[in-house]
Amino acid sequence: MSATCRVLDVLGGRDPRRRLRLVQWLIASAVYVGAASLLITGVGQGWMNTSALLLWLGFVFAVLVVGYVALRSGWTERFRDPSVTVWQLSMGVIAVNWGYLICGPMRTSALFPIMVIFAFGAFTLRWRQIAWVTLLAVSSLVAAVAVRTLYPHWVPAQGEVPPLRVDINNVLMLIVVLPALAVIAARLSNLRQKLRDQREALSRALAEVERLAVSDELTGIANRRSMRGLLEHHVALSARYETPFCVAILDIDHFKAVNDDLGHAAGDEVLRAFARRTSETLRSSDVLGRWGGEEFVLVMPGDLDAARRVLDRTRHAIRNGCHPSRPVTFSAGVAQHHPEESDDNLLSRADLALYQAKRCGRNRCVEAS
């Protein structure tokens, strides 16, 4: 294990979520340290009072120590937000506006870290929490301005600073703040990419669920549920527009022997080939679905003559095209929908015709009376 990993284990522990929260604490600490370094240099330049700086440093140190101990120990994990984001940001707001109060001619640059505070809030805060932090930031800044205006003797005396020194300090404060903002922006970018990837994966999963809901997993054609819906649709159209349609139930002859002699893998291949070859012979308006096992349902607009032609084409297409070593045939029962007839009754008539086809020797189509 590398020295870096050992340090991370000591500082952040092995829990990845706790370690992530401590990384965020570390980013905030880096901004605090950078701002404190600039304030310390101000003591020698004459615009920062030592006593005021020590009080501010004591507050910041206490906030960082309490935050680290609470996060590292796991004590905050009892809360809804284990990162205690609102508390951390509120302490940051107080520190920023306190810095504004004591920085004299450099007070404008003391406000720069407020950008980091609100960037952190973009990760987890709800709008009410963001409103609270915003209210705290504005009200505490107004209070700092009021103290400077109404009680100037409360503010430590500070000397004049050349404009160039003010500009340099502003640049240095940006150098402290911008890396933290860049890290936060990179994390937000990664989160957006993860969300996009998750959305795409979810869309693919939903599409697959929808496909499986209406498609047979083995053959890829419509499943029983889908065919039920299609039958109800055709019955409704027939009742409204008197458009004829037929339903055929197809059963592969001696399919059990295929499984017994060649194995279930060969049987599955026969089912797939049967569905594929049959679909190739159909008209664009015909729909084939797997009803269950080796049974298929075929819905065909038109009368019995049209259905008969479709089934004849199918019989010739599948005979030698489903398995290389044996011919495949099917028995079928076909029924034309009667006015006001339910889909269950239509299927029942087609099913009776199918059993008649089997009793008569199979490899034939029987039309329901």
Description of the structure:
It is a single chain. The chain is of the alpha+beta class. It is built from 13 helices and five strands. It has helices at 3-12, 16-45, 50-73, 85-102, 107-110, 114-124, 127-150, 163-214, 224-241, 255-262, 264-281, 304-318, 343-359; strands at residues 245-252, 287-292, 295-301, 330-336, 365-367. Helix 3 (50-73) packs antiparallel against helix 4 (85-102). The longest helix has 52 residues, at 163-214. The mean pLDDT is 89.
Sum up the structure in keywords.
Alpha-Beta Plaits, single chain, 369 residues, 13 helices, alpha+beta
Task: Produce the secondary structure layout.
Elements: H1 3-12, H2 16-45, H3 50-73, H4 85-102, H5 107-110, H6 114-124, H7 127-150, H8 163-214, H9 224-241, E1 245-252, H10 255-262, H11 264-281, E2 287-292, E3 295-301, H12 304-318, E4 330-336, H13 343-359, E5 365-367
Parallel strand pairs: 4-5
Antiparallel strand pairs: 1-3, 1-4, 2-3
Helix pairs in contact: 1-2, 2-3, 2-8, 3-4, 4-6, 4-7, 6-8, 10-11, 11-12
